[in-house]
Design a protein that fits this description.
The protein is an alpha+beta fold. Helices cover 32% and strands 21% of the residues. A hairpin with a 6-residue loop joins strand 4 and strand 5.
Length: 439
């Protein structure tokens, strides 16, 4: 197994030592959804707090983003760090056996999603737009969002991740064989999730032959030759950050600060050098890319529409506001809706990714010379309802397909902000597993 571990390390990944809640913990109150969800709905988090009560919970180990700007932020961070130590010292956590740790998420009416818990070497990750690392961001990183998260990690003894990363594995060779071997065995845990989150279960794979096959599969999808043949690029990468980009960027920023203070002999194996994540195959049926629509307030819709068409690279075709075409733009289209005007903005592009990037560039230039407000909305019926009000408008964005995803990053570096969502808020990762990050 030592040789297998070394092979994974060369790829910038490893199978981490995982901490799980002890058997006496009420699992229904332990996991809560990712901290970057429901950011405009503090009432959501207040209700979760009432449900959890005084039970041990990951709610006490994270900082929901809706509280980032409050005056008492430092007190919250200090309380989080204190609770981590208390949970460790009081036996709230137990160490999971060595092996591969699979997590399966079930949501009503949707395909299940299977992930593998791994740790990524932060030396193999770069969150900058021009990144050439083997592990890369998918969207531009907003640097101002890093400091608060870094303060949490800097004084923390644990990490409890909500980061999800995507593997480029169309042949389904890495995670799916492990899942086939695990299903039918007893799960490590199985629990319903709060607030319409579905259910979460986990399985442990310890068989040496399965672990060796996992290593071989990882090496194959990371092969630069395969990457070059698929994308005609000599700049290979095999892991893209799907959710939690800013949390992972904060872990990277903290590591850069810390390693400057460490002696040489502690750099390689310091636990803060790595960050635990859930890896999911982008071709997993439980992964869906949903467009995020642009909703404008306090705007003259005709000015915005004229800004789109003045470049000469787009044209506007009027379409009835009730048309299904408006609600489901093609790869080279953006739907436009306002109280007085509706139709399709056609682009000279061939994919949803390229169209989204081109549209956002035009929107950004418009916003730089306008006093209007913009919001990014997943819920299309809600966006259209608000866009129907005077002084508002909506751009309905096209879908981004899985086949074009990695190729776009190869060519362009990153997607524009808010280009896609991996499911709705209640579908995001819930916190469960933890890992020690203090030496």
């Amino acid at each position: 197994m030592n040789n297998d571990i070394e092979q994974l390390r060369k790829l910038g990944i490893s199978l981490p030592e995982i901490l799980l809640p002890a058997e006496y913990i009420d699992l229904e109150k332990w996991p809560v959804v990712a901290c970057d969800q429901y950011t405009s709905e503090p009432e959501y988090w207040e209700e979760v707090s009432k449900i959890v009560g005084k039970s041990p919970s990951t709610l006490n180990l994270i900082l929901p983003e809706c509280y980032l700007g409050e005056v008492s932020g430092d007190k919250r961070i200090a309380a989080i760090q204190k609770t981590m130590k208390e949970y460790l010292d009081s036996g709230v956590f137990v160490k999971a056996p060595e092996g591969a740790h699979l997590v399966v998420r079930h949501l009503p009416g949707k395909p299940s999603r299977t992930g593998l818990i791994i740790a990524i070497d932060l030396e193999s990750y770069d969150y900058n737009r021009e990144s050439t690392s083997r592990i890369r961001p998918t969207e531009g990183t907003i640097i101002s969002r890093i400091p608060a998260r870094k303060r949490v990690r800097a004084g923390a003894v644990l990490e409890i991740p909500h980061v999800m990363v995507l593997l480029d594995d169309p042949g389904k060779t890495v995670i799916e064989p492990l899942a086939a071997a695990a299903f039918g065995t007893a799960p490590v845990y199985s629990t319903p999730l709060l607030k319409n989150g579905g259910t979460l279960e986990a399985y442990r794979i310890t068989a040496p032959d399965k672990l060796k096959s996992l290593v071989r599969a990882f090496r194959a999808i990371a092969d630069p030759g395969i990457f070059q043949a698929r994308y005609n690029s000599n700049n290979p990468f095999f892991i893209a950050i799907g959710d939690g980009n800013h949390s992972l960027a904060a872990a990277k920023a903290y590591w850069e600060d810390l390693k400057a203070e460490l002696p040489e002999d502690r750099l390689e194996n310091h636990p803060a050098r790595h960050a635990m994540v859930e890896a999911v195959n982008i071709y997993d049926e439980g992964i869906s890319f949903e467009p995020i629509h642009r909703l404008f307030f306090d705007i003259d819709p005709k000015r915005l529409l004229a800004h789109f068409t003045k470049t000469g690279k787009t044209r506007f075709i009027p379409v009835d506001g009730e048309s299904s075409r408006l609600r489901e733009p093609g790869a080279g289209e953006v739907g436009f809706y306002s109280p007085d005007t509706s139709g399709m903005i056609e682009f000279e592009t061939g994919s949803g990714s390229e169209t989204t990037a081109a549209a956002q560039g035009i929107i950004d230039s418009f916003l730089s010379a306008s006093d209007c407000r913009i919001d990014f909305v997943h819920d299309l019926p809600k966006a259209l309802e608000l866009a129907h009000q005077p002084g508002n408008a909506c751009c309905i964005m096209p879908k981004i397909t899985k086949d074009e995803f990695f190729g776009f990053i190869v060519k362009n570096g990153c997607y524009p902000r808010k280009s896609f969502s991996m499911g709705e808020s209640n579908e995001k990762r819930y916190y469960m597993e933890a890992r020690i990050i203090r030496a």
